[in-house]
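Note to self: keep these together.
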Amino acid sequence: MPTVAFQGIRGAYSESAIFQFFGPDTPTLSCRSLEKVFQAVESGQADLGLLPV
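Structure:
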């Protein structure tokens, strides 16, 4: 199962969207900024990143 990075704290709307799309057991990585989401994916800490549009 992929680890998905998102911007925000645990329980944020972005994390809820991840759970709705990928399932409630999806590993997530909370990031302080959108730039950190990109860095997490680039470095391999996360497989995917979710960005709000």
